[in-house]
Amino acid sequence: MITRKAISLIIPIVLFVSFLIPINVAAQPAGSISGSVTNMYNHPVPGVTLSLLHPQLGRSSSSVTDSYGRYAIYGIPIHSVPYYIEVYWGSQLIYRSSVMVQGQTPWNIRIQ
Amino acid sequence: MTTYDLAIIGGTASGIIMVLGGIVLLYKGAIKLEVASQDPSLTVEMFEKKLKLTTHVPALGLFVIGLLFVISAIYFAQTTTVKAIPVIGKAENVEEEIDVIIKSEWPVSAHQGHVQAVIRPQLDVLWVVISAPGYNQRTLVFKKEDFIKGVNLGTVQLEKTMEKPDPNENIIEELPANFRNISLDAGKTFGIGKRP
Predict the structure, then answer these.
(1) Chain B residue with minimal CA distance to A67?
(2) pTM listed for this prediction
(3) Contacts of B189 in chain A (CB under 8 A)
(4) Which of B22, B37, B94, B188 has its CA 20 to 30 A from that of B67?
(5) B159: which chain A residues are within 8 Å (Cβ-Cβ)?
C-alpha cells in the first residue's frame, strides 16, 4: 500500500528526473526546393527573388539568385496541397507556377 | 568538450569546493571566523601597492577566493555580445533595387566524416554581398580591423548582364479565385531562403 507520504516523495523525484531527460520532439517533415533561373539564351539570371506561396501556410522566406542564377529554399513543410513558386524582378512578378515539394525538389526556371 | 570548457568547469568546481570546504571547516572548528590578532593577518597588495586589502579574519579569504573562482568562470563562460556595426555605401549606375546581405562564417573541422565541434561566434571577417536583378553580384570582404568602427562599402559598381524581361511573355499561373494572396513584403511564415 503506497502511503500519501511515499507519493509526496515520488512526485517531486519524477518531476526532477523528467527535467533531466532530454525530450526528442518528432520534427515535422521538411523538404527543400532548389535550382536555377535562366533566360531564353540559357544565361543565368542573377539577383531575382524567389518565394513560395501556399493557401494554408502563407508565404515563405525568400531566396535571391546568385551570379549563376542559383536559388534554394529550405525547411519547407511537406504538404498534400501544392505550393506556388514565384519569381520577382525587384517587386514585379515575372513567373509563377504550382509545384509539389517532396524531399529535395529540383526546380529549374526559364524566363523569356 | 574543449579545453576552454574544461577550464571553466574546473574553475567553477574549485570555487564551489573552496566555499563548501570553508563551511565544513568552520563547522568542525578547524578554522574560526574571529579576529586573529590586532595586526592585519592577511594583506594582499596589488598594482604596485596602489591597492591594498587587509583583513583580521584570514578564514574569510577562503570564501573570497572561492567566490572569485566562481564569478570569473561565469564571466568567461558568457556568450560574446556583439556591438552594433553601422553600414554605409552607395551603388552607382544600378537602375534596380539592390539587395545587401552581410554574413560571417565559422568553419569547423571534420575527421573521417565525423564532426564534433563547438563554435564561439565572433565577427572576425564580414562578407558583404550586393546584388540586383539583372546585375552580377559583388562580394566585398572586411577584416575585423576594417569594420571596427563600421562597414564602409564606398561606391559600388555592378555589372549589368541582362535587361528586365517582359512579364507578359512569361508563365504566370493564375491563383484560384478564393486564394488569399500575400505580398512579397508580408511576414514570412515558413522556410529559409538561401541568399547569395
Answers:
(1) B136
(2) 0.65
(3) 57-60
(4) B37
(5) none
**pLDDT tens digits, one per residue of A70-85:** 999 999 999 999 999 9
Q: Is the CB of residue B189 less than 8 Å from the CB of residue A58?
A: yes
Letter for the amino acid at A77?
P
**Would you state the torsion angle of the CA atoms of residues A53, B95, A72, B190, taken in this order, to the nearest 10 degrees?**
-40
Q: Nearest Cα to B153, choosing from B143, B141, B170?
A: B141
- What sign for the dihedral angle of Cα B3, B8, B9, B15? positive
Q: What is the ipTM of this complex?
A: 0.70
Given a contact cutoff of 8 angstroms between Cβ atoms, the answer to whether A57 and A75 are in contact is no
**Partner residue facing A75 (CB), from B166, B187, B190:** B190
Give the start-to-end residue ranges of the domains of chain A. 30-110
Second-level CATH architecture of A30-110: Sandwich (2.60)
Shortest CA distance to B54 belongs to which of B68, B36, B40, B39? B40
Residue of B nearest to A95 (CA): B172
Q: How far is A64 from chain B (nearest CA, A)?
A: 5
Pick from B132, B192, B193: CB nearest A47: B132
Assigned C-alpha cell, B61: 579569504
pLDDT, tens digit only, all 196 positions of chain B: 677 778 888 888 988 988 888 888 888 887 776 665 666 666 666 666 666 666 666 677 778 888 888 888 888 777 666 678 999 999 988 989 999 999 998 889 889 999 988 888 888 899 999 999 999 999 999 998 898 889 999 999 999 999 988 877 778 999 988 888 888 888 788 999 998 7
Three cell numbers written together for B62: 577562503
Three-class DSSP category at B97: coil
Distance from CA of A12 to the nearest CA of B (A): 26
What's the grid cell of residue B15?
570555487
